[in-house]
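Pair request: fold both.
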Amino acid sequence: METFNSDPKPGRLILPLVLIGMIATTYTFINRVADNNNLEIIEESVQEEVVEEVVEETSTTSSTTTTLPENYIGYLEEITAEKLQAIELGKQVLEANQNWDEKSVTYQEAKQEFADFIEDAELFVAIVTDPGPPSEFANLVSSHEELKTIVNLVYNDTIELLAGLESSDKGEQRSAALSSFNTNLDQFIDKVEEIVATATSS
């Protein structure tokens, strides 16, 4: 009686055994060669390189523009116009004084011109004094007080100019009055420019 194998593929169990035998033989061979030849078996290690992603933050600087109130701007325009008046007054006084020095006008004509400057300066004092700055701005109020002080000095200088013209000296009093007039007028102009510059730069 014949005996039949129930497994239709008996060779499938042999192949894994052959593979295991080959691996074991290779491993034994490599270790033996390494021992006999003093070779060092180096295990290769895989190093992972970590790259850090840097995110740059871009910051933008925003500038804000401060808008001045209308009454503030109105005051700045007012004193700027007064500065121009001061410059014009200064030119007229210098011209009249030079005309008298050069004797291109008579004494009566020079006296009348110098008297007119007193009236002009008095009117200028009134223009600068009122209405003045808005009361809610303390910095403007303080600065305006300085302008009023200076413009009154200018007015006093015009009085001294006429007195110097009428003096019997050789022109020393008039020359001193003119020097003081120019100094005070320059201070007035500089102060106006300072007020405007401070307001527009803040």
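--- second member of the pair ---
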Amino acid sequence: MSPYLSDTLVGTEELLDMIESAIIRDINEALATVYERRTPLDQARAALRGEEFVPLEYEDVPVNHVWAGNFPSTVLEEVGPEAYPYVAITIDDVIPDAEDLMQDHVNVYRNGFTLHSLAKATPEGEVNGQGIDPASDKVLRRAVRMGEALHLVMTSDPTMIRLISGGSNPTRGQHSLPWRYQHQGVGLNFWFQAVGTTYAIKSYSAPWSS
């Protein structure tokens, strides 16, 4: 069952379509904005660490790398590195929401959805004999910046900002540990990492017909 969203009846599929459309339209422009904003901060970090500044590069997210409702991989069969980077949109619980007395004549719910950003980095090997591959740092930063870009999309798209403005959003942020995977045991042993950001939408439905 899909409850009402705002003053219009919008089901789960319609919600997924709205989110997917906003991401497809604006994600790559948002990524460019996030990376441009980070450049002076990256330069300052490199100087502090006594390292030569090398701009962190990123890949655009193709239209067919935005997945609504599921992930393109499972724990049994991981997809290859060519599927990255990608965004997965998943629907979370629909639960009752506490409201003030002015809203006691309607049913109020919280509809949740999570935007998952999955990034990859090419292995570079050890640096300075420290036993640490710098790609493990790059993959984290790429995943985090994808999450920031998605938040920029959610807060700049007219439809999405209307839906999420009813509460404090995002409601939750999550980071996975990095993992490595060599697809079917062939090729480079890439680094991967995921960042998830959860949002909530207040849904109102009257218990009677107007």
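Observation on the second member. The first strand starts at residue 66 and ends at 68.
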